[in-house]
Specification:
seven-stranded antiparallel sheet; alpha+beta; five-stranded mixed sheet
Length: 358
């Protein structure tokens, strides 16, 4: 099973279901990027006119913090037992009528939860106030003149309905290794579940710090593709949710900016790649992680996939050409999957194996 993240959050804004592989160039770089970094100086120097606020764990009153942490621990225990019905009964109304996302997340991660015990990493208490900022940015903890401190965090939640929310990040190690569970609650005369996010913290036996260190090594060697994809994997493994920023996550983004390869699409913008006497319209490149393989997906658009054999051969030729141009990929990836995708959704895959699975 792919190590894709699972999230379910109630409508309208961040409140969506996401189940996808890494999309560093699109989701992370564009949603977070330097919006937080530019805003940090403002936060450090002036008090915002918006009423919304965020408290970190040590700032939350003991009674409130205990209630939040108990709610999070109960959800973890119920998820570990696959007790979907009890979890559903304790969610906000918007989720009770649209619960398939959470149910799927729990089922998909049953093996990860098995035999695991959770430890709370951090708790945040968010209050939109009566006049929340349209951009939905919450700044939590102490900010220094240069930006974030080691203990601070920021969340990007545009369109969040008026109210009080808590975000609890828990770490756990089960049969599938280290994971994080982030639960989001809304105060509705008691803390009701409003979000559920499970993410792996390791890939092919290595954690996010390992990938960050190796990304820096590849960067120093001038291997920009390996560096970029390792930076992206590091961010994915270290970020509990994609709408959160910390000093370390910001640093990863900053370091990765000047190694972004020009032929790797970002921001949803396709790139033209020439090989084999033709030009390919590449729409996406992303890391695909399985339990014992670290693979690269290349997606490109084609007019039609009706001729399966010819399309598969073309996709395989693209993958072969890309590896021939960037032989460094043989050091990091097990397989290259080139997906030829047409306008009707047809998807034909050409596979090139670089090295055996671990």
């Amino acid at each position: 099973m792919a190590s894709a993240p699972n999230i379910w959050l109630a409508p309208p804004s961040i409140l969506l279901y996401q189940q996808s592989s890494t999309v560093f160039g699109q989701t992370i770089m564009n949603r977070l990027s330097f919006r937080f970094i530019l805003a940090f100086l403002t936060v450090a120097c002036a008090v915002s006119s918006w009423a919304q606020s965020c408290q970190v764990r040590d700032e939350i009153p003991d009674q409130v913090r205990s209630a939040i942490e108990n709610s999070a621990q109960q959800i973890f225990e119920q998820a570990s037992r696959s007790d979907v019905n009890t979890i559903r009964a304790n969610t906000i109304a918007a989720l009770q009528s649209n619960f398939n996302g959470i149910a799927t997340a729990i089922t998909d991660n049953k093996a990860a939860f098995a035999g695991a015990r959770a430890q709370i990493r951090n708790v945040f208490l968010l209050d939109t106030g009566s006049n929340p900022s349209p951009d939905g940015r919450f700044y939590c903890g102490v900010f220094e003149a240069s930006g974030m401190s080691a203990s601070s965090a920021a969340f990007d939640l545009p369109g969040l309905p008026v109210g009080k929310y808590s975000i609890v990040i828990e770490d756990f190690i089960g049969n599938r290794g280290p994971y994080s569970l982030t639960t989001i609650f809304q105060d509705q005369n008691g803390w009701k579940l409003a979000g559920f996010y499970v993410r792996p913290q390791a890939a092919v036996g290595h954690d996010g710090i390992w990938f960050l260190e190796h990304a820096r090594d590849y960067k120093s060697k001038g291997q920009s593709h390996n560096a970029w994809f390792y930076y992206s994997t590091s961010w994915e493994l270290l970020a509990p949710v994609t709408f959160m920023d910390t000093r370390l996550l910001s640093k990863i983004i900053q370091e990765s900016n000047n190694v972004q390869p020009k032929d790797v699409p970002t921001g949803g913008k396709p790139v033209a790649y020439s090989a084999n006497g033709k030009t390919y319209n590449i729409t996406d490149m992303s890391v695909f992680r399985l339990a014992n393989t670290f693979d690269l997906n290349i997606r490109y658009s084609v007019p039609s996939t009706s001729d399966f054999n010819a399309t598969q051969a073309d996709a395989r030729q693209l993958a072969t050409a890309y590896v021939a141009q960037y032989p460094e990929l043989k050091e990091t990836f097990n397989n290259i999957y080139a997906h030829a995708v047409d306008t009707s959704g047809g998807d034909v895959v050409g596979l090139v194996t670089l090295k055996p699975a671990k």
